Amino acid sequence: MDSDRAEIVRLAALATGDEKHEASSYSTLDALLVAYRDVLRVDPSRPSWEDRDRFFLSKGHGPAAFYAVLAWRGFFPEDWLPRFITWGGKLGGHPDRLLVPGVEVSTGSLGHGLPMAIGSALALRARSRQEPRVVVLTGDAELNEGSNWEAVMLAPHLGLGNLTLLVIDNHSSTIPLSPIDARLRAFGWDAVPVDGRDHAALRRALERRSDVPTAVVAEIGTG
Amino acid sequence: MRQQAAATVTDAFIEDDRIAIVLAEISTDYFERAFAHDPLRAVNVGIMEQTMVGVAAGFALEGFHPVAHTITPFLAERALEQVKLDFGNQELGGTLFSTGASYDYGTDGATHYSPGDVQALATIPGIRIAVPGHPAEVDTLLRHALAGDDLTYLRTQAIANARLRDVEPGRIDVVRRGDAGTVLAVGPMLDRVIEATGDLDLTVLYATTVWPLDGGTLAREAADAPDVIVVEPFHAGTLAGPVTEALADRPSRIRSIGVPRRVPREYGRPEQHDREFGLDAEGLGRQIRAAFASAPTGGFDAAPAGRS
Q1: Contact flag A106-B66 (C-beta cutoff 8 Å)
Q2: Which of A200, B20, B106, B238 has the smallest C-beta neighbourhood within 10 Å, fewest atoms?
Q3: What ipTM was assigned to the predicted interfaces of this complex?
Q4: Which residues does chain A have within 8 Å of residue B85's beta carbon, measured at their own beta carbons?
């Protein structure tokens, strides 16, 4: 395990009080680490920097790994983590953009992130901001929500090359969706599957840009 | 009203590059000038109302003032969670305007009726709700909304008052003063309220901003007359909460007249629905007289001369 990953696991454990370091198996942990370490252009000292990349955690539940990565990048102090889901703390069971620096959008109810990400991507295009991109993370079961498929249809139609959908596929969907990348390609996305624990593969997949929206389906295995 | 709303939004869109327009197939013809002016800020997403609201909220996250529009039930009810979470929970501003409120689509059945829109959207903290009664009032209320940063819902209806009033956003307008009681007419109900109460010694007030309601004016104008009747173009009782709150410092008797809370099974023009529900001038006159006749104060006969 690389040292960065070990640090994220330690920080997540601060939030959850997890002495067994179960955070190591969190489905989003590796993708979040790679995104915030290697791919996203963000500046923790300027969370509202206009040319930053936007990251939407659409699957807002189980955010300990997300908070750990944000603290690791310096968006807020490490000592916020032990107050996760406690009275008076800022780190709730779902992230709140008005309480936590680095959180672009408050989420929790599934199926909201991708449509909002399309709006953000359209707004960046309307402002002629070529560099920033919008990355939105969903779970595979979250794709059961119909609003996602509205947005999946819409984004290629709009030619949103500044939008990336990152699907964490831990096969939690009751309705089997695999192969998700093939479904997304059928709607016009430039979609690729990757091993969701392989940092180099995740980085290569997330760095891709296209003139249509891109998708990365990170295979985690059941859990 | 829809045509006026689209014209007002388009004019503002051309003048102000903070404004974005997000449509869901409905009314696209009315926005051709906007699409021609800047297609990057004016988007038709197709028939997907949840995504329409989400996309609009995404524009708001980036500092735009988005306008989202479609037929009333598909904006206020189908996409209610998107309005609640994508705008309300994020504390984002924007303007939502609907067409076909209550039973404007009177031959299309219950799927296209939406007398519950205001009550549904009023659950969202911080929202402002405008109910114009005349196309010129649409222009006034929309311009106010588009210039600000609040989340505003504006409902338009096919039936309008014949005469416009010089409305002030957020304020109740005093139409006339009387002593026997007060009638608060909302939006397009004003003309028929005036017709129904012409020979009665009543104060008539006019509300085009209903949420938050201008409780101060209502309390002042109702004065010592305990009877207040609210005539609403949506579900009866929608405004009962804020009216009660406004009059909490005195004994009062509040009666709500509006669209009944049942699944409508009738097909016909809005005027036919109005007649069926007792919301035309004749029906309102009957209901208002009945309400005052049963008042403990003795009704109109006991009232002194008007104080207008």
Answers
A1: no
A2: A200
A3: 0.96
A4: 106, 108-109, 112
